[in-house]
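Input protein
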Amino acid sequence: MKKATTAAIAAGTLLAAASVPYFYHQNTDLMASHYVFRSPKVGAELEGFRITQVSDLHNREFGRDNCRLLALTEAQLPDLLVITGDLMDSYHPNLELALDAARRLAQIAPCYYVTGNHEHRMSVERQNAFYQALEASGLRVLRNQAVKLGAGEHFRLIGVDCSQGRTQTLQKLMADRPPEELNILLSHKPHYAKHYEQAGVDLVLSGHAHGGQVRLPLLAGLYAPGQGVLPKYTAGMYRLGNTVMCVSRGLGNSSFPLRVENKPELVTVTLRGEGTL
């Protein structure tokens, strides 16, 4: 009996030791995912336009001064960079680290930012100071605002606070849109998907779900905040009527510090007109 117990302990110890490299790489190896969004609203002037999304960094560093993240971002050749919230981590806040990452990202391409739930946990005073510092770093913070972008202002970029995704705020921002104009929404929480569809958004870029944290074969993500167990929206592209939502698995962790089959992800979406290759 004693020999069997010793053997079981030894086997468990070996198994635990062997799993360390696996979990290390699962949580530190960056990967780039690429998606194509097709729409008749994408004209020749936007054909091939590349949007790279940084989401849920949570104060993570990938290499010194985030050199690995910056190199991978630059390699995507983005025309536009977007940060869809939770740049910092409210449980272990390091605003200087978050601002440094933002400043370096903004040097790669024009960069727009919307808030996540972790930013909203700060006091109003700290939030405002943080957003002002982001603007000073070269980003444009979109707080329930819309801007027209592209040569000739060919599409509308809309950003809503993470607390406003299911309110009338989005409806108001979409109210005066020309029907032929492409509109792209930055909103942190994917579980407000039906509200994005009802507002008539063409493309949504979202995060927050952390890929479901643990991804299982056939079942995909195991748990996501706001969606619970076996969440519906965790990663990739989803079509909801005339709305397409792209959900990033994100880069960092917050309250649950481990990813399984769910490596940190940088997302790039390429715009294409219908009928193009």
Observations:
- The longest helix spans residues 2-28.
- The domain at 2-272 is CATH 3.60.21.10 (Purple Acid Phosphatase; chain A, domain 2).
- Residues 57 and 252 are 5 Å apart (CA to CA).
